[in-house]
Design a protein that fits this description.
Elements (H helix, E strand, L loop, with lengths): L8 E4 L15 H10 L4 E4 L11 H18 L2 E5 L5 H13 L4 E4 L10 H12 L6 E6 L1 H4 L5 H11 L3 E6 L4 H4 L8 E4 L5 H7 L3 E3 L7 H12 L3 H19 L6 H13 L18
Parallel strand pairs: 1-2, 1-8, 2-3, 3-4, 4-5, 5-6, 6-7, 7-8
Helix pairs in contact: 1-2, 2-3, 4-6, 8-9, 9-10
Length: about 290
């Protein structure tokens, strides 16, 4: 198994766009400094929040390179999402991650010729991972987008036995009952749902990748601390506060997740000089 020891809270960062919707990498260091100052010591680049699937391969590479440099300077753990593209492009991004010395990759399943079984998924990820030896590999389980809903505990066991670099999954599904057997799997499970952080931590999970870490990181940091200290009631109250914040931002779920979160980030960070721009097509900006 590849050595990637990060545990805790990881922010899936927004991709910064200029007014003309081109990629802006010049603001990344200031963005990273803000996260570090607020006790967020890990970032996921080119994920769903970062609209990675709406970027070209060359853009994804440039964003990866910029974040790699900044993360090394600030001692921030880095994970890069390489999936959501035709297979040859996914392979190219895996090779780039290896060449750039990215410590960890996150990968979606094949999105057109979808895996039908856990074995199919393992085979696909294994074929990708071999192009980045030594780079920790995480699977991105987000069935609401991919339509791939397989048994994650079974997949984890198969992947551990077959992929040397396999290190865990990002679990973006609100069903904790389905994933609970993986608590003792020996791999890292990053919970990807902001509104169940407290419940997941109470079950024994210790890591999370959540969009709201960009906007109100202090709430999740406080939830994590409260659970660790056994202050369950405090953690519950903080979770309800975070959930209320999410509902306010998305107007009770009526607004698109990424456009509403990106708009809120810009609103909150305006006075600090941080602006990540609007979303890119096919997403629609809220303005």
């Amino acid at each position: 198994m590849s050595k990637f020891t990060f545990r805790g809270l990881m922010a899936p960062v927004f991709t910064v766009f200029n007014e003309d919707n081109s990629v802006n990498v010049d603001s990344i260091k200031k963005y990273a400094e803000y996260l570090k100052k607020n006790e967020v010591n890990g970032v996921l680049v080119n994920g769903t929040t970062g609209e990675g699937m709406s970027l070209s391969v060359s853009e994804r590479k440039s964003v990866t390179e910029a974040w790699t440099k900044v993360c090394k300077e600030l001692d921030i753990a880095l994970m890069v999402q390489i999936g959501g593209a035709p297979y040859p492009d996914v392979v190219e991004l895996a090779k780039h991650a290896y060449a750039t010395k990215v410590p960890a990759m996150l990968c979606l399943p094949e999105l057109y010729f979808k895996p039908k079984t856990e074995e199919d998924l393992v085979d696909y990820l294994k074929s990708v991972s071999k192009h980045a030896p030594g780079v920790a590999l995480f699977y991105y389980h987000i069935p609401m987008f991919t339509g791939v809903s397989l048994n994650m505990p079974r997949f984890i066991n198969l992947a551990k036995a077959s992929i040397p670099e396999f290190a865990g999954i990002k679990y973006s599904n609100g069903d904790l009952e389905q994933i609970s057997p993986a608590v003792e799997s020996g791999v890292t499970v990053f919970i990807g749902s902001d509104m169940i952080l407290c419940s997941a931590l109470t079950l024994g999970f210790d890591s999370s990748i959540m969009t709201t870490l960009n906007i109100c990181p202090e709430l999740s940091v406080a939830i994590l601390k409260a659970v660790k200290e056994g202050r369950t009631e405090d953690a519950k109250k903080l979770q309800w506060k975070l959930n209320k914040r999410v509902m306010e931002i998305t107007e009770n779920g009526k607004l698109g997740w990424i456009p509403s979160m990106k708009r809120e980030f810009n609103k909150v960070q305006k006075e600090k000089g941080l602006f990540v721009g609007k979303v890119r097509a096919p997403l629609k900006d809220l303005e």
